[in-house]
Amino acid sequence: MAKTFTDEDDALLAELGVEPEIKRSGGRTAREERIIAGFEEVQRFVDEKGHAPRHSEDGGIFERLYAVRLDRLREQAECRELCLPLDRQGLLQASLSHLTAPDEDLDDDALLAELGIEAEAPAITELRHVRSSAERKAADEVANREACADFDKFKPLFEQVQRELDTGMRETRPFELKAEIEKGRFFIVGGQKAYVAVKGELMLTDQGRTDARLRVIFDNGTESNMLMRSLQRALNKDDAGRRITDPVAGPLFSDEAATEDQASGTIYVLRSKSDHPMVAANRDLVHKIGVTSNDVQQRIRGAHLQTTFLMADVELVATYKLYNISRSKLETLIHRIFGAVRLDVQIQDRFGRPVVPEEWFMVPFFVIDEAVERIKDGTITNYVYDPQVARLVERP
């Protein structure tokens, strides 16, 4: 039977620097609540995206993190049993035959780390060491997270940041310096986006180092009143910890360059003059969408000798000049938008070998032009291409 702690017990434990495991509302421990919170983050992803997180390079860092977390939740019998009553989407209903047996030696911190969930202080049942008074004081640096009462005010900021990451206006980079922690900055820590909403006045620690109290909002609807050095340590300890860069000023790209802009290349849209039956029957719909750093006319010279141009001459439909943008990321974004209507034709190269060219799509030009405009203003992540109505439609 579980031991009940008296006030005298609590006082003695406090002197020893040990904190008893407190049962929260509903009879759950702090660790169990964090495991459930981690599972609920995965559920919110499924609600928003309409599918379980996947181990896909196209899915982005957060989808891959959630996919790993879901794997761990399925593998650990304790976690599976804890979250199963909440599994309204059937995420844990995987075949148990292939799941690994739980590691009997896995302690609380290790388990939560496996799940990508921040661990709290160890429980009374894990007397690994007795903390000194200095350690107890340091424990105040990591404040417990609580529900963010005004999260509605911050949610649009996280959604905008995700759109800007998707379009390349922002990037994630390894965290390096404490000086990067400023009000208005975004980070990735523990698999969650974190926003520094408030930064208090700088103060000196007992060791003569600068620090400040922060209000940090997390994208799962929680917040923490933590110290700047605590966030710094969390980012340094997290192999996946990242700083999210500020957005690139101005549109993603434009047809005119500012004085300080550096040219990156050109998007070009082509129609094929091939006599392939599929192409000939749909000539006004079949378009190649490519990106090049070279002169477009030079790029398409000798098109009839290249499989990428269907071994035929081409008609240049439109070009869009790029500035200060990753050509490869932009090309990947465009191809993902129209991936469902990629042209599936097989041709032969000059040596008679079969080739399936890429970058050709069955899509009207006016839709391509609209997609480019929405990439410019950053709204493209709100839209998908619907082949049934041949236009971009808002995501459900």
Strand content: 15-25%
Task: Tell me, briefly, the overall form.
Answer: elongated
Helicity range: 25-40%
Number of helical segments? 12
Secondary structure class reads alpha+beta
* CA distance, first residue to last residue: 51 Å
Mean pLDDT: 77
What can be said about the biggest beta sheet?
7 strands, antiparallel
Order of helices and strands: HHHHHHEHEEEEEEEHEEHEHEHEEEHEE
Got a strand count? Answer: 17
Biggest sheet, spatial arrangement of strands: 1-8-7-4-3-9-2
Number of domains: 3
Radius of gyration: 27 Å
Unreliable stretches (pLDDT < 50, length at least 5) are 1-5, 15-25, 95-106, 119-143
Oligomer: single chain
InterPro entries: Phage_T5_Orf172_DNA-bd (IPR018306)
Organism: Paracoccus amoyensis
Domain Bacteriophage T5 Orf172 DNA-binding: 281-375
Pfam family, one: MUG113
Features:
396 residues; four-stranded antiparallel β-sheet; 17 strands; 32% helix; elongated; disordered N terminus
Quick structural gist:
A seven-stranded antiparallel β-sheet has the order 1-8-7-4-3-9-2, sandwiched between helices. The chain has three domains: 21-123, no CATH class; 146-244, no CATH class; 263-394, no CATH class.
